[in-house]
Design brief:
Bound molecules: pyridoxal-5'-phosphate
CATH architecture of the largest domain: Alpha-Beta Barrel
CATH topology of the largest domain: TIM Barrel
Structural class: alpha/beta
Oligomer: single chain
Shape: globular
CATH superfamily of the largest domain: Alanine racemase
Strand content: 15-25%
Largest sheet: 8 strands, mixed
Number of domains: 2
Radius of gyration: 23 Å
Number of helices: 14
Length: 396
């Protein structure tokens, strides 16, 4: 998590910058890129960046040295991928496309995946005429995670993907022939064993369909760049699918591309007390700058800190907003926290910069890069205009 951080980095890098700020570590992104590239080279699969997890396009030229293209959740991300990773593949999946956006989408996307047979029938012909490769998202009805329905597209009542029952009812022979590929996305932060189980379910349910396809997209949720991920098992599964079914395989991880490649730097503004508890108020907010801490929820890693009671001084950390639930977690430290202390949260590249907000009028953190020479490079700063601009008609 913090393997690239040394104590002196606080003095040399982080204390120099205004907080709050996200810092993307180039070396970590390249390390992830190398792993993904080796999977591509050894198996012949293609790997796309799922932009909803990480769309800091200043890094697209770097990432394009390793991966095959981008995956989009709709028109805007498709356009971003086409503009900022030119020459690479652009794939799109959306729960439902609107008529207004579809024609424009045809300008940007190479692969278009539909969620339902109805959407396929509505837009499929236009996509084919524009020489696009088209696919249908299937729901293999196989959950490999429990208690996390918000991240489980196979949970009961899911709107994502076509079940075999719906396929039977709505897919005609003519439309099956038009299809180039199938897509499924069912995993979240999972290892290759979960993919193996899911692939068995796909084979069982759609064995008759697979020989008619050119490609299969295995979605995201593959935690490939996590140090203990079973890369050998992944490669084995990919080779088996490729040889048995003669399909071009796509993977579209978001998290794995920028896993552990970013930090959020902040400072302590005040320490308050409530009975026995000491609470540090920071210049960053969970609700605004790390929304997954509340939504997922999870407690992000904090450099130099440990869990409750492990070290001598325990603090609850929270943001300066008026939301009482704007809390990051409870951590312990070997020293007392003071105003102006710098704190460094890890795991802050994915689902952060693309998901933050200005609730409470909170300023947006700047975005920095720490390059291969450990130099800090400011990529983007935000101000009052970025808050006001979305709320009314005045342009400034
Ligand atoms: C979210 C998503 C991904 C990426 O998932 P990660 O968990 O970030 O790897 C890929 N494909 C689709 C369709 C998604 O919805």
């Amino acid at each position: 998590m913090f393997s690239l951080i040394k104590e002196e980095d606080f003095k040399d890098s982080f204390s120099q910058i205004s907080t709050p700020a996200y810092v993307v570590e180039e070396e970590a992104l390249r390390r992830n890129g190398e792993i993904l590239k080796s999977i591509i080279e050894e198996t012949g699969c293609k790997i796309l960046l799922a932009q909803k997890a990480f769309s800091n396009y200043d890094f697209y030229p770097l990432l394009s040295q390793y991966i095959s293209g981008t995956e989009a959740s709709g028109l805007y991300e498709a356009r971003l991928g086409a503009e900022e990773m030119p020459g690479k593949e652009v794939h799109v999946f959306c729960g439902a496309y609107s008529e207004g956006e579809f024609t424009e989408l045809l300008k940007y996307a190479d692969h278009i995946v539909f969620n339902s047979p109805a959407q396929l029938k509505k837009f499929g012909k236009a996509a084919k005429e524009a020489k696009k490769s088209i696919g249908l998202r299937i729901n293999p009805e196989c959950s490999t995670q429990e208690g996390h329905d918000i991240y489980d597209p196979c949970a009961p009542g899911s709107r994502l993907g076509t079940t075999r029952q719906v396929w039977e009812e709505e897919m005609t022979k003519e439309w099956i022939e038009e299809l180039d590929g199938l897509h499924f996305h069912t995993l979240c932060e999972q290892d290759a064993d979960a993919l193996e189980i899911t692939w068995k379910a796909v084979e069982e349910k759609f064995a008759d369909v697979l020989p008619k396809m050119k490609w299969i997209n295995l979605g995201g949720g593959h935690h490939i760049t996590r140090p203990d991920y079973h890369k050998e098992l992944l490669k084995k599964i990919l080779m088996e699918i490729k040889e048995k079914w003669k399909l071009q395989i796509y993977l579209e991880p978001g998290e794995a591309v920028a896993l552990n490649a970013g930090y959020l730097v902040c400072r302590v503004l005040d320490i308050v007390k409530n009975k026995e508890e000491e609470i540090a108020i920071l210049d960053t907010s969970a609700a605004c700058h790390m929304p997954d801490v509340i939504e997922m929820p999870y407690t992000p890693p904090l450099y130099g800190a440990a869990g409750v009671g492990e070290k001598e001084y325990t603090y609850r950390l929270g943001g300066p907003t008026c939301l009482s639930g704007d809390q990051i977690g409870i951590y312990s430290f070997s020293h007392k926290l003071q105003e102006k202390d710098i704190l460094l949260f890890g795991d802050m590249a994915i689902y952060t910069t693309c998901k933050n907000n200005t609730f409470n009028g909170m300023p947006l953190p700047a975005v920095w890069k720490r390059d291969m020479e450990k130099r800090m490079v400011k990529l983007k700063e935000f101000g009052y205009e970025d808050f006001k601009m979305r709320l009314g008609s005045k342009s400034r």
